[in-house]
Prior knowledge:
The protein is α/β, with parallel strands linked by helices. It has a three-stranded parallel beta sheet with strand order 2-1-3, with helices on both faces. A three-stranded parallel beta sheet has the order 4-5-6. The two termini are 28 Å apart. It is 48% helix and 15% strand. The chain has helices spanning 24-34, 51-67, 83-89, 100-105, 107-114, 123-126, 129-137, 141-149, 167-177, 189-206, and strands at 15-20, 38-43, 72-75, 118-121, 154-159, 181-185. It has two domains: 15-100 and 188-206, Rossmann fold (3-Layer(aba) Sandwich); 106-185, no CATH class. It is globular and about 50 Å long. Strand 1, helix 1 and strand 2 form a beta-alpha-beta unit.
Amino acid sequence: MTITIPPVVAAGKPMLMVGCGIMHKEVDYLIKKNGWNVETQFLHSSLHNYFDKLYKELDSALDFDDQKGRQTIVFYGACHPKIDDILDKHHTLRTQGQNCIVMLLGYEKFMAELEQGAYFLVEDWALTWEPMVTEAFGNNLAVVREIFHSSHKKIIALRTPCSTDFTEAAEAAARFIDLPLEWMDVDLDHLEKVLADAITAREQAAK
């Protein structure tokens, strides 16, 4: 895949990427790999379960950055129904994609597995799975499993070049909601293009 390398910020403070910490290792790796003059500010990945908290924390982070005169870009999908209102308020834009898994896999691969009933599990979620799920859905295991079984038939754990060995955590997550576990090795080519396109678009918008 050919990647168009965004221009490095010519002067002043680096661009600041504010977003979900779910793939913080992958994003930081790609920024370093490409030499992009971009700093990162990650919010907790569990915020997608709580619209009010997500709106408040993202809005507050961007407010702070605006006051510091920072040029920002947002690393989120359509994770909040008012995401566009937040972007407009802070005169910024986001990475393109329905969610972070689409940004990692690409739309076609994402949809092909989704149609087969897949729930996608990344390392960050696997390591905090049980407390994250029970905080969002309650402690009744039968109810939690019913929620997942109603729309999913399996878990696919996504392993990237930045992943550590989270086999034990992924297996525990699958047991917790009683779904079979599969593994998928994923490169970072699609995510790299998504980031590159967003940084380029933000630079062009700032001119």
